[in-house]
């Protein structure tokens, strides 16, 4: 995955989708649509009742997905169906720790990582994983053939940035600003000083910048320093808006909106 990102040259888009928002059948079609739209990789969000780092848009999307009965097993079946249908875009399970550990008994996390891999996931992104626990989790993920992608934020000290950059796999997720996710609190730019500081520690590791990105201009600005622009809330909101309400084929409208939104991110 890393080699592909570095080699491609241009900034690429990593869309975030909340799995099960609108139902898992819709998620399957959205995966196909974003792959066809040129996504570099997909963050597939596992809905959770207490998503502490998420703003209102993604909280609501998670609540809708849970209300629709979405489970991690169901999400795995969806990714399996996507792979069986020939889908190749890398998919990262974006999940808080709790759903991954909910098997209860010792070894539940390892079993879950194994089944994610079997389903066709390539990696995991766990926003509430403490850096102190990352080496253990990363080793476990690696044993199961998954990469564990770690985060840094503007408040991360140099010392912790060095550790995160060293331990991350795939890319380093650079949280663009403090606060929670959400396109409505977009910053017009993430300071170059911050991204240059991150780059000092990350070397050749690709950087993925996320939080508040919703326009092609922002994607281009991010592209001066990073390989990936991660787009969550704005895309999830656009899809939901197009796909809710009755009449006609709501999923077809949602999927079409995902395509036009992805296209709108390219200058
Ligand atoms: O929604 P935004 O502002 O576009 O930000 C990306 C984001 O959605 C995704 O990467 C994400 C969803 N939940 C998170 C929790 C923490 C960090 C990142 C995330």
From TrEMBL:
Keywords carried by this UniProt record: Amino-acid biosynthesis, Aromatic amino acid biosynthesis, Lyase, Tryptophan biosynthesis
Q: Which GO terms describe its cellular component?
A: cytosol
What superkingdom does the record give?
Bacteria
The reply to whether Magnesium figures as a keyword in the UniProt entry is no
Q: What is its EC number?
A: 4.2.1.20
Among its keywords, does the record have S-adenosyl-L-methionine?
no
Q: Which Pfam families does UniProt cross-reference here? A: Trp_syntA
| Record GO terms (molecular function) | tryptophan synthase activity
Gene3D superfamilies from the xrefs? Aldolase class I
Q: Active-site residues?
A: 43 (proton acceptor), 54 (proton acceptor)
Pathway(s) where this gene product acts? Amino-acid biosynthesis; L-tryptophan biosynthesis; L-tryptophan from chorismate: step 5/5
UniProt catalytic activity = (1S,2R)-1-C-(indol-3-yl)glycerol 3-phosphate + L-serine = D-glyceraldehyde 3-phosphate + L-tryptophan + H2O
**Classification via PANTHER family:** TRYPTOPHAN SYNTHASE ALPHA CHAIN, CHLOROPLASTIC, TRYPTOPHAN SYNTHASE, ALPHA CHAIN
Protein family per UniProt: Belongs to the TrpA family.
Q: How does it assemble?
A: Tetramer of two alpha and two beta chains.
What job does the chain carry out? The alpha subunit is responsible for the aldol cleavage of indoleglycerol phosphate to indole and glyceraldehyde 3-phosphate.
Among NCBIfam families, the record links this protein to: trpA
Q: What is this protein called?
A: Tryptophan synthase alpha chain
**Which species is listed as the source?**
Saltatorellus ferox
